[in-house]
Amino acid sequence: MKRTALVVGVTGIGGNHAARELLAQGWDVVGLSRRAPRDLPQVRHIAADLLDAAALNAALKGVAPTHVFITTWMRQDTESDNIRVNAALVRNLLDALAPQKSVRHVALVTGLKHYLGPFEAYASSGTLPDTPLRESQPRLPLENFYYAQEDEVYAAAERDRFTWTIHRPHTVIGQAVGNAMNLGTTLAVYATICKETGRPFQFPGSSAQWNGLSDVTDARMLARQLVWAADTDAARNEAFNIVNGDVFRWSWLWPRLAEFFGVQAAGFNGTVQPLEAAMADDAPLWREIAARHGLVEADLDRLASAWHTDLDLGRPLEVMTDMANSRRLGFTAFQATDASFFDLFTRLRAERLIP
Question: The dihedral of CA 309, 126, 121, 237: what is its sign?
Fold first, then answer.
């Protein structure tokens, strides 16, 4: 039977890589985002505002996907607003698709804030979960827009009789421009600035992150799991963590990242040193670097998300993720984390996003 995927957020880290994996496996792919992806000419693009229900209904009229991959969200100032806005975008999307009666499966990408709590709470000692994080852990007694998004999927699935999967990556490492949370590219930009200015490549985070075990999610791994789950009957109506499959310590990885860029690595020195403060005045410098090296993106804010990197690397606990739930069902993909970063940095150079 013909399979048509609607990838919502096709220009983001997760959506872009999901579309690539789907195309590689022979799917027809429709991408929904505000702007068309420049690097996916095979994708039929639909421009739409997920918060404008009437316009979304019109944009999706006649679109009949068999599978929907929701990989986007909209950051707001408070968690209450995050819940209102991000629940609405899922609800509006699934309501707009309902009349076609074509959807057989919906995949929703959330993340580890499911276990750690929202941005304003997930580093507080009162909400720290046991690690490694497992899908069986109960929801926290906190407002969390991930829970609201899940509940919208569950309600629509019951109404429209489709199956679902929830995918919870750790920090996603992959190429995207204009993405709200992009640790890999942020560190590449920071290392480039350090090289240009002679600054040390200073680890910005906590002792727990520097010394503890951690993991991350290569965007290609997330894409593989999304497509695997869509094709695996046993995976229906399940939540899955998704990380690379290895663990590391930042005290091991940080010098390796510094070596790639030819800069001096400086580790944890007893205090958290936020990257957001360190890069606060670097926008004019980045414009100069971009002009001097002929880079294609001169806007620092389109590449770096220092606030998010600080939140990830400043957490007061080590964060490891259990993968047993998908492993036992047959998902066996693996990705070495140092290669995730080096592959990303190489791609950023090839696409003239860093020198």
Answer: positive
Catalytic residue among 115, 146, 147, 190: 146
> Do 111 and 168 meet the contact criterion of CB atoms below 8 Å apart?
yes
Q: How far is CA 287 from the centre of its chain?
A: 26
Tokens describing residue 319: 């964060």
> Is 113 annotated in the active site?
yes
pTM for the complete prediction?
Answer: 0.95
Lowest pLDDT segment from 58-62, 91-95, 176-180: 176-180
Six-digit token string for 101:
């009666």
CA 298 – CA 202 distance, rounded (Å) = 23
- pLDDT at residue 125, as a whole number: 46
Structure tokens at 216: 């991350």
∠ Cα 257 180 265 (to 5°):
20
CB atoms within 10 A of CB 237: 12
What is d(CA 281, CA 14) in angstroms, rounded to the nearest whole number?
Answer: 29
Residue in the block written with tokens 């880290």: 13
Buried b (16+ CB within 10 A) or exposed e, 163-187: bbbbbbbbbbbbbbbebebbbbbbb
The 10s digit of each residue's pLDDT in 9-49 is 999 999 999 999 999 999 999 999 988 888 899 999 999 99
Selecting among 113, 115, 190, 195, the annotated active-site residue is: 113
